[in-house]
Amino acid sequence: MKLLTVEPMEAEIGYAIIPLIDPAQGGDMLDRIGTIRKQMAVEMGIVVPPIRIRDNIQIKPTEYILRVKGAEAGRGELLPDHYLAMNTGGVEEDLIGVPTKEPAFGLPALWIAPDLRDKAEAMGYTVVDAPSVLATHLSEVIRKNGAELLTRQEVQKLTDMVKESAPAVVEELLGSLSLGEIQKVLQNLIREQVPIRDLVTIFEALADYGKMSRSVDFLTERARESLSRLISLKIQGPDGVITAATLSPNWEQKIMAGVDGDLTRGWQLNMDPREVQKMIAAISRAVDDMVVKNLPPVLLVHPDVRLIVRRLIEGSIANIFVVSYNEIVHGVQIKTVGMVE
Asked: What is the pairing mode between strands 298-301 and 334-340?
């Protein structure tokens, strides 16, 4: 039976990486994993299951593979006695090292000898040790796959936890929605990097609107609106201003005209694929422009089309926050950087 069980998360490592993991050889990776799991609980509101680590003699000695429910979710290579130097922009001088790519974000980088560390930092490179490279990659894999890790059993534990402090909310909620529907809403929130720590607020919104519709899409949008303060905080700059591109009314009307049905009963989009591709390309250009200006990529859209726009672009444009006007808390200043025509 043990052969049939699939670990929620595991890391397969080549034998050269074992010293980074094994406490007997001075490795502190297990402590770092404990810290990552705590960090994810605070940041995303999810309890990351224990991560199993096992050696794999079939991969290169310096290689590792990260798996979520048995499927590969990331891989990379580590030179344990070296440092990774990344040119985050503006460094003109070259450095002697082994060219590679930083595994979490795919940035060009170099593995350098320990005695070059100070020189690299003085030149302006960002320098990290091998365990930090693995820890960063692991954190990113958890962020991207957090929704997969939120099982129905985990949702049961979360509802039991809320029941202790807010029994009336949970009782009302479970009177209209199943555990599976609650799980799907929470997974949708995590998928878009919306933390689910404030479960009482989420459950109150679901209890209110669950009487009107059991559509997961409809309930997700209402839950997001109940978390407007949190979403606004997440996308605003250090000055408290939200800088965003807006979708033109022309595009919004085209999307609305192409929707059959609605979020409460179920919907499908009948829009010319060429038009969809044009819109994705226009949004992509706006995102690139914001990234160049060092701004978080935020697209502000009408509440009726937010989910549809998000679904259309999620396969093509990563790391973009698609938010509706209803998800911005009252009183926050919005600065627009242009309209996606």
From this structure: unpaired
List the structure tokens of 185.
């809403």
Has domain 150-226 been given CATH number 1.10.357.10? no
Beta bridge pairs of residue 271 = none
- Whole-angstrom distance, CA of residue 335 vs CA of residue 68: 39
Q: Whole-angstrom Cα distance, residue 300 to residue 246?
A: 5
One-character DSSP codes across 244-313: EEEE-HHHHHHHHHHEEEETTTEEEE---HHHHHHHHHHHHHHHHHHHHTT---EEEE-TTTHHHHHHHH
pLDDT in tens, 61-95: 999 999 999 999 999 999 999 999 998 777 777 88
237-340 CATH choice from 1.10.287.690, 3.40.50.12790, 3.40.50.300, 1.10.630.10: 3.40.50.12790
pTM of the model: 0.90
In one-letter notation, the amino acid at residue 15 is Y
